[in-house]
Structures are given as C-alpha cells and as structure tokens.
Design a protein that fits this description.
With 256 residues, the chain is of the alpha+beta class. It contains six helices and 15 strands.
Length: 256
C-alpha cells in the first residue's frame, strides 16, 4: 500500500522500487503505475540502474540480474551509461477486434494487422499508415481502458515506419489507460514487443542480430530514443534487449 501511495503521489507513468535480492539475483525491483503494480517496466529499469550507477552502488561497466515479477532479467550498464535490459523471448496472441480498436482510437488509419505481443508484458502492437495519421490519433481513454482490460493487454502501442530521422526504425505512441497512463513518453516493454513484431513480419531487414532505434514522446514534448537488439538463430528470436540513456532531473526526500 505504501509503494502504491508513493507512485500515486509521484504521478509518473511508473515508479521503481529497488530492494535487496530474494531469488538469487543482484537486486529486486518492483514497478508501480499511479493505479497498479506491473510485472516489468523498461524505461523505469533504465532509470533505476542509471541512478544506481550514479550513486556508485554498481559500477560502469557492470552486468547485474534484477528480480522482477516477469522473472530474473539481466541488465548491462556500459561505461558510457547506456543501460540495456534483457526481456523475455516473445510470445504472440492473435487479435480479432479491429473495428473496436479503430473506433477507440478515433478512427485511426491502421495499415496492417495488429497483434498482441509480450516480451515481458502483453501489449497490442498496431501499425499506422504514416506519422501524420499516428499524430492524429485521439483515443477515447475510458473506452480504450475497458477494451485493454478485456483484451488482456497493458497498452496499445501504435507505430509507423515514417520516422522523424531516416536513420531510425519506427516512430511510436503508447496508450495505457487501463493502468492509469493515458500516454507515455517512452515504453521499454512495448518497444521490445514492437521489435519482435517487426522482425517476425519482416518489416525490417533481418540477420543473426537486428538493431532498431525507436522514436517516442515527441508529440508530448518529451522525445525519447529507445534502442532494441534482437538476436536470432535459424530465424527464431532467441534474445531481446531494450534500453537507452537516462538523465537525472530531480532529487528529493520522502517523509511519510
């Protein structure tokens, strides 16, 4: 109850709490949105291990194992501060509610087949025709929240191959009203799921290793770049890593 109250007071998309390990890892991390606990959060992992390296709790470089509700997952911190976290091997579910989805996103211009994908959390991955159509999405958040709950997904992650920077892979928006987040500026778990979607459907060049850079948050005035590395063997995805760099913007002390 205390952690949930703190997350609600912080009013950020996720708040991470770091504890001593219990299951053989190096530390235990729990993640809370303003309304609920979630199994895993990519960008909060990046933030947490960025802070631990700033405090000197872990070194640069270092390789640590975090205990999460999604399992034991490796996190690498580079000399330059780049934090890359392992996610789970992707799982896929079919999606059969296109008309409801289109309506809940304000008649979004969907340009392919949406799919439910998990690399730690189940998200609905939705291809959009171009960046103008992506930015034109105006979700009906109460309706979308109920639909996400009924579909068993944490968020709707919409993307387009029409990027701001031609060197980047996709431009994204993420909507997670079912867990108290109308729109998020960076979403690590959904980025891993999106990368798996892109590789599986051959929307990006493939090989033994695929490197992707994802744009997100620009429409919110909080631009983020998320890096994803996909490893494959015999065309099957065997490893997903997601990460980026963080910046400490505020420090404080909680009294309660």
């Amino acid at each position: 109850a205390t952690m949930q109250s703190i997350a609600r007071e912080m009013a950020l998309s996720e708040t991470a709490f770091v504890f001593s390990p219990e299951r053989g890892g190096d530390c235990k991390v729990r993640f809370f949105t303003p309304t609920s606990e979630v199994d895993l959060c990519g960008h909060a992992t990046v933030a947490a291990f960025h802070l631990l390296s700033e405090l000197g709790t872990i070194g640069r470089p270092s390789l640590v194992v975090q205990e999460t509700r999604a399992g034991l997952l490796t996190v690498a911190v580079g000399e330059d501060g780049l934090v890359m976290m392992d996610q789970t091997v992707p799982e896929y579910r079919p999606f059969h509610h296109l008309d409801e989805l289109v309506a809940s996103l304000g008649n979004a211009d969907i340009a392919g087949e949406p799919s439910i994908v998990s690399t730690g959390l189940y998200d609905l991955i939705v291809p959009i025709r171009d960046r103008a159509a992506l930015w034109a999405i105006r979700p009906d958040f109460p309706r979308l929240a109920k639909l996400c709950q009924s579909w068993g997904v944490t968020s709707v992650h919409a993307f387009t191959l029409d990027t701001l920077d031609p060197a980047h892979t996709v431009h994204c928006r993420d909507f997670a009203p079912a867990v108290g987040i109308p729109e998020e500026a960076a979403t690590g778990t959904a980025s891993g799921a999106t990368a798996a979607y892109l590789v599986r459907r051959r929307l990006v060049p493939t090989g033994p290793q695929v490197l992707l850079t994802m744009e997100q948050g620009d429409i919110l005035g909080r631009p983020s770049l998320i890096q994803v590395v996909i490893d494959l063997e015999n065309e099957a995805i065997t490893r997903v890593r997601v990460g980026g760099r963080a910046v400490t913007v505020i420090e404080g002390t909680l009294r309660f």
